[in-house]
Write a structure and sequence with these properties.
This protein is mainly alpha-helical and about 170 residues long. It contains 9 helices and 2 strands. Strands 1-2 form a two-stranded antiparallel ribbon. The protein starts with 6 loop residues before the first helix and ends with a helix.
Length: about 170
């Protein structure tokens, strides 16, 4: 069979699990493996290079279809075509990441006041009210002390270090 390796060695050399190699083969990222005399899959050095490339492309968050196209261009296409396609896909991915970061930053801004200001006293349960207000307005539960966390706010004894609200209320 020449210089080919079985799936375990291909996995170790490419940094992928054997199941990922079989997945990439089934998805068309990698051509079907040659079979040795014993029926085991055999992978060439080029196959291992394709797998390593696919792993690196996936760590960038590129979808499988992009990985498949890039692997095909990288190993079977012209350099200029490959580079042009790669740059376009990476720029699109960067835009997606920037949008995700903006959404996460907006979420962080929403969470900060709740984490900083949540409290529970004899009059209100600020934690419940803050969540209700974030959802469009107070609910009846937020205005009724007995429903504030099932009455825990009104009946809670001061917590001792290392004790939770459930310990303090005898639950």
């Amino acid at each position: 069979m020449g210089d080919t390796v079985r799936i375990g060695i291909a996995a170790r050399e490419s940094g992928l699990a054997p199941s990922a190699i079989r997945y990439y083969e089934a998805a068309g990222v990698l051509p079907p493996a040659a079979l040795g005399h014993s029926g085991y899959r055999r992978y060439s050095a080029d196959d291992v290079r394709r797998l390593s490339f696919a792993r690196k492309a996936r760590t960038l968050g590129l979808p499988l279809a992009d990985v498949q196209a890039l692997v095909a261009l990288a190993f079977d296409g012209e350099c200029e075509t490959y580079v042009h396609d790669l740059v376009g896909r990476v720029r699109a991915r960067r835009t997606e990441v920037e949008q995700q970061l903006a959404a996460l930053d907006a979420l962080r801004v929403e969470l900060e006041p709740l984490a900083r200001d949540a409290s529970c006293d004899d009059e209100t349960c600020d934690a419940v009210r803050a969540l209700d207000e974030a959802d469009g307005g107070p609910s009846p539960a937020a205005t009724d002390l007995d429903s504030c966390l099932g009455g825990l706010c009104a009946s809670a004894a001061p917590a001792e270090p290392g004790r939770t609200m459930l310990h303090a209320t005898g639950m």
